[in-house]
Amino acid sequence: GTFNLLEVSKEFWSNLEPRRKKNFRFHHISTDEVFGSLCEKGSFNENTPYDPRSPYSASKASSDHLVRAYHHTYGLPILISNCSNNYGPSQHVEKLMPLMIKNIINNKPLPIYGKGENIRDWLYVEDHVEAIDLILHSAEIGSTYNIGGNNEYKNIDIIYKLIEFTDRFLGRPERTSEKLVSFVTDRLGHDFRYAIDTTKIKNELGWTAKTSFDEGLKKTIEYYIKKFT
Question: Within the chain, where are the H helices?
């Protein structure tokens, strides 16, 4: 898919008149998964070597390399950003937060991989969009930026937060939905921890995430309660 987009974009860009050609950008949005798995300390920065551990992350890493190759080989004006886990309104219901909120509303099981100890950084979608817009309009061609929310949580702690806030919004007694939690066989190739160092985008472009995790979570839950009830 990335190869096809690069081919079409290269042809389109090559045929633009000079002013429009100068303003053209191919912005490739990637993931922190390309860097592999972290232990309890440390974080990924833009110079972290790629170390994908699953077929999915390996395909994402290969697409990053393709984008850079089109820049170096053909001069295509590219930008790359690697983000942490997104959350917020309108996310596909198969993703962790909307699925769990929907199940809490409907009193269905809340399946958690392994012991729920895996750690992810969470980035509110509107903060991510602001970062993308800033990179697109202000970054030097060929640049890469990591985008994170500085909200690291274990999966099990995310579930308990969702239960707490969703039950409260629904007017249920406190911790009513904790009985729905169930632990299932861990996912194959499940990386332990991701964490993003956002120093570069902060120092060079002045971006930091604005939305606190609790604030973003409440906005997200309110959206899905309206959607699913």
Answer: 2-14, 18-23, 55-74, 96-105, 125-138, 155-169, 199-205, 213-228
What is the rounded CA–CA span in Å between residue 31 and residue 118?
A: 17
Residues paired with 29 in a beta bridge = 81
33, 64, 152, 167: the active-site residue: 33
Backbone angles phi, psi at 114, to 5 degrees: 60, -125
**Number of alpha carbons in the 13 Å side-chain half-sphere of residue 101:** 31
Alpha-carbon distance 85 to 15, whole Å?
36
pLDDT in tens, 147-180: 999 999 999 999 999 999 999 999 999 989 999 9
SS3 for 148-209 is: CCCCEEEHHHHHHHHHHHHHHHCCCCCCHHHHHEEEECCCCCCCCECCECCHHHHHHHCCCC
Residue of 7, 56, 74, 174 marked active site: 56
Tokens of 16: 């633009």
Alpha-carbon distance of 85 to 102, in angstroms, equals: 19
Q: Name the DSSP letter for residue 115.
A: T
Q: For residues 77 and 71, what is the distance between their CA atoms, to the nearest angstrom?
A: 6
Plot region of 172 (φ>0 → left; ψ -120 to 50 → alpha; else → beta): beta
Q: Has 121 been annotated as catalytic?
A: no
**Residue 189 pLDDT level (bands cut at 50, 70, 90):** confident
